[in-house]
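#struct-help
A.M.: can someone run this one for me? Single chain, 1456 residues.
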Amino acid sequence: MIRTVAFDCPETARPYLFCVPEEIRCFDALLNDCGMKRQVGNNAASQKQIEMMVFVTKYLSEFPEDELNSIQKDNMYLPARDGKMYRAVDMTFDDAPWLSRRVSERTRDRYRFVHDDIGTGVAQLLGAKSLRDALSAHQNGMVKIPCPKSDSLARILGSRAVNAAEHYKAILDLLEVGEMHGVKQVSLVLDRRTHDSTSLVHPCLGHAQGPALVICFHDVVLDVEEIVKLTSPSNLYSGSVISGASMLFFDPNGEFFVDGNVKKEKKTNPPTSMDTTENVPMPEAPLSLKQRKTQGSKASARNYSISKDFVTQFPDQLEPFLSLPFGVKESLMNSNTTSHGPSFRGTIFRLPLRNTDGPPSNISDHRFEEEDVCAMMSELESKAPLSFLFTYHLQSISVDEILATEAVSTPILRSRVSGSPITRRSHIDELVSNQEWAKGSSKFSKLFKSTWVAEKSSYTLQISHRHKNEPEDIIDTFVIQSILAPPRFREMACTEALKPLNLIPAITISAHVHSTQGSSTTEFQPPKGTLFIGLDTGLPFNINAPLFLHELTGSVLLEKDDDADFRKLFPGIRNVEIKGKNGIETRALALYVWNRQAITSAMKELIPSMLADLRDPLQLMYSRDARLLYRYWPFFSRIRPKFQPLMPKEVYTELANSNVKLFLTEKGDFCGVKDGYFTSSDHTISGRVADFFHANITIFKVPHFIFDDLKRFDIPSQQLTPSAVRSVLKTQVSHARWLANRPDDALQLLEYCLSDLASVENIAEDASANHICRSEIRGLVLMPLADGSVGTMGRSFIVASAQQQRLLPTITNKFMSISAMQRLDKFLQKPGFMNALELVEFTPQVLANHMFSVLPRAWEGKDFVDWFVNHSSGDVTTGIPSPAWLFQFWKEVPIWNHDTVQLFRRWPLIPTTSGQLASCGNARFILCFSPQSQNDTLSASLESEHELTQRRVEDIRKRELLRISAENRSGDKTSNGESISEADTHFRCMGEKDDEDEQETITAPGATEREPELLEENVDEDININGNDSVLQNDEESADVTENTNISHTESGDVNNLPIGEEDASSNDNGTGSMDTGTTPSVDTPSSVVPPHEADSSSIKCLHQILAKVRCPIIESAFFCNADILKILPVDRLVLARSILTTLTQSANYWHQIRPEESRLQWSHLSDEEFDSLVLLLCKNQGTRLSLMSSDLTLLRGLPIFQTISGERVSLKERHQHFRLDDSVNLGSLEDCLPESIKSKFLIDKPEFQDLLEDIGVEMVNDAALLQKFILPEFHLMPFTKKEAVCRVILSKWSTLGDSNEFVLVLKDSPFVKRQSAATGGEVVWAKAKDMLDPRHEFFSLMFDDDQSKFPTEEFGSDEWLTILAKLGLKSTVDKDTFIQCALRVEAQESIQKAMELHKYYVANFGEFYDSNQAFSGRLSGIKCVPADFDGSNRSLYKFSDVGKGNAFILFLYLI
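D.P.: on it. Structure tokens below:
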């Protein structure tokens, strides 16, 4: 025994080890001697011992389950991390490493962790506790709650379809619960993120951390008990709810919450060697499918009180909630902790969506693919706003989406009640609080007539919703009507069987009447009405009523056998006990009877009053279209077959009540069914004929199916029958005023009036038909005209196609309308018909007679008018035609027919490439020679617009033919037959059966022998469940209208009337033929045939481009068909050249201005190369000169196309005004010296033009003549530099120029020599050679040594120039005049030296100066130029007359 006692022993070692009692511790020495140990149980085991413990423990866990359960686990010990052994029930296995690391030292002693080599599964089997459970239970007060079993939930789901509608119904169930608990605001979020799954309350909850649908009830906290009731499967694996300060997890499969304990694992992972420094256990293996389907597992749930510690310990578990945009994190982490812990004001349901990675489930194995999620969200987005229709509290629903990679939500839907909620609540409060209907339901009160009158009430509800990124809300307006306790429904609610259920016999319907977005009205279709549970009725109303649903499928019970399978599964489930004749009797409650009566009462009591209430608002306030009232008509054909037997006759009887005026008339007002006539579908008379009788008969304008509904229920109504229309029109004059602006009515009346002639082939040969036309048809105001009016038959109206009528838009009152032409085409083709009614066919002559009415008066007589082809449309106010108009005009008027074109000679209608219109009277002057150079863009545009117009006309014709054919063949068309517009057709066919309607057996009203009873007698009979009812397929055949779409009225053109030389040419390389379908001839010719002048098409194109650039009048061939253009092309190049010369001359002489200060021919637009090309193309063809006549050359001389050396282009109208330069003339050297005025006289003599210029008679000049005649006469006007250039030319060419006497004579008199001007201080001036002195003469140099103005200066002082100047009169000898000038200069300067030199020269050349008449001597004698001394005075100058006195004479002699 002493081995089991020690001084120090842990208390937990009892009853195996004991501590020494305090009473005998004083004998410690004695006890030591006896072998008492000082300490027992505190020594850690060795590594070998630990390995043995681990081995035994794992071996023990592998025992069979029954043997393992027989072991008393309270006495079982397990090794701990510290190497010691502890009781298993007192130990904890570490299934949450992130939590074990955070356990403080102070609290660590509470938990003894199982050794790491022992798996968590083994530790769990042997009694150890989970760290997660220990922490959560210790800190948060976890409570175990039972929940429904998975097999019962799976049974419910198995009976339902798996689709978006069912998913939405599950969400609708939650919204209903929220409504029951007063929730006003609901938020739904599709969270596509996948959250971490490490720190969870339980590992199996990791499968629920993926994408989920989150539903939040704001500001309303549901109790745990209320939440448990909501554990419907919704095809989810598991769900979690956070509510207030608690969190709830469901385990309907019984997989990991079993009797409050964690479910045991059968197998564990093999032991793994772990690092002793960091405890990171291997992840747990997921439960296998076999393990999940254990029998006898109890489904349960756990409720946790949330604390901040709980949030921090299980962050991954809370992250799907904390990351939501509902303020959960702020509420739980930042708010002040209350006595119950942190709180979130609201309830959040997180419904995980099982994906492909999710585990199987006993409830459902359905996985949400992407299309399933999108379909569910689409259903939610479209139907969520309708949740406000019949609710009391709910006011706002929002739908958002959080993408997998995003943290911020994206809005999908924002929906709310935009009106006041008080009206809605008051309406419902009145229904609930009014209990008067329940009074007087006793047997005694049934003896008297009830005074209860069912109460009706209505109100308007507006719901706004915004989808995704729409800029503005859409506001839908609903009219809601309710009725409380209608008679039959009240009786059922007061029965003894149903009275204990406290059912309120109130029924409500709603109608969507208007939709707006911002300030605009949104087009919408009334919804296919549903019961509020989502069942489609086919009525345009939503119906809300207290209905019984199938417990498993959730469908409404309408037939006796709808719940037969459920009653068979649970016999007696519908039995109730009531008091009968024989005491207490057991009867079966037929819930479907209640449902049928609820729906029937809704139809009977509310539909007629709803239409009556909607009539005026729709007509005056909302859509303002009275026809839209019939969107809400209960068309029997559109009611779903299962609801058709429930539609009572009283609905249509009440609608047809004379007091309820619901039938729209053609006049736009409403009246009762007895006050008007429905159009008949049994007669072929046109509906417009029926309109004729509006003055005396009221005709309803309603959809066809309304009469069918009234007829179906044998409700009396009136139909319009045909009459003698022709005789009425003859006798009743008022029809003219009535038809004045009703061409469609008149046309249909006319068709009917002409129907007698349909079988007559030849009107002219049939006397009776001719008589009808001339005597009975003439005079009737029945001819529909193009202006929308109606004309009198027998007047001259024009029959023209739509394109032809567009040519004369101002006289549309004279054209038969296009619709009339199409509808009466079979009559117009009959011989004699048009003549009998004096109808005129459209021709160019008819067009010419009315041109004044479509073109501006100012255009008449004009040669040209401004008009640009880029006009997209004509100016209606000024009458300017559009390109399309002109294109059509030239399809009607052949440009090649001179006589036809001359019908329009007063009008400018020929389009030119310059953008102007040329007069038709000048057609011969307007060029056309290169169809290949047409404006392809314009041509394509015109053709496209023309073809588009043709297609439109053809489409109108086809639609008209289809409508006529449909009216003639269809047996259900009324005589009103106004299916002209698509909108009217839609209105008339309103109520037609939908393509999506169910094909089920239709039970006729009243087919049942008696009304089903609420209580049935036989409660124990066998129920025969028929899985599939027989279905009658009602195939409606719709006849196809077949017609020949290739109908063409094109006539073949006349190909023989071609100009000479074009018999074999009717198309060019790019020709496509005419697109005309009217009366203009069209020619299709082989593309290989080329007109004679087109042999060199490139030169023709070049010529066309040049002339177009200069704005020469050229036809814009884009407006004409190729065949017409080919007929007016010149036959050869010579004819083309002459035409061009004529046109250019005409333009220059008569059409010289387009407008003031703007010339017509813009020669400046051409380059030199283009000018040269023009001259060559006009004179040559492929290098060969054309045989132009003298008159042609005269025209050519008059064109400013000849280039001068100045670069300008001049004409050669006047002879001897322009010249050519000889080959010897170096134009380069003369370029700088020629004045601008002179350059324009000389043509550049190009080799290719020499023969042409010779033929024209242009004179040629050489250098001498050029200088003599043109340069020297202008020398004095030239600038200084040009004068120098002239001098250089003279110097360089003097060898040849000096031989020309004429040139030398002109040059002598030309001041071309430079000298210095004495008056201006030495400025260089120009002088004649004969007026200057030769500086090489010594006497001149001495006398004028200080005055260079007498000598040539600068370059003219060179010997070369002085030699030339000497020949031109430069003074190189001293003559008498020069001598006199020298004497005067001596006198002026008083130069003694110069005087002495003067007298020396005089004495030496005395013989040359001697004159017998003494004229020279007399002049010289008066000049003081003689040096002499007087009486010994200083030497001075004296006159010759003074030198004979005294000593002065001696000096003179000496000098001599």
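A.M.: thanks! The longest strand covers residues 455-467.
D.P.: also worth noting: The two ends are 190 Å apart (CA to CA).
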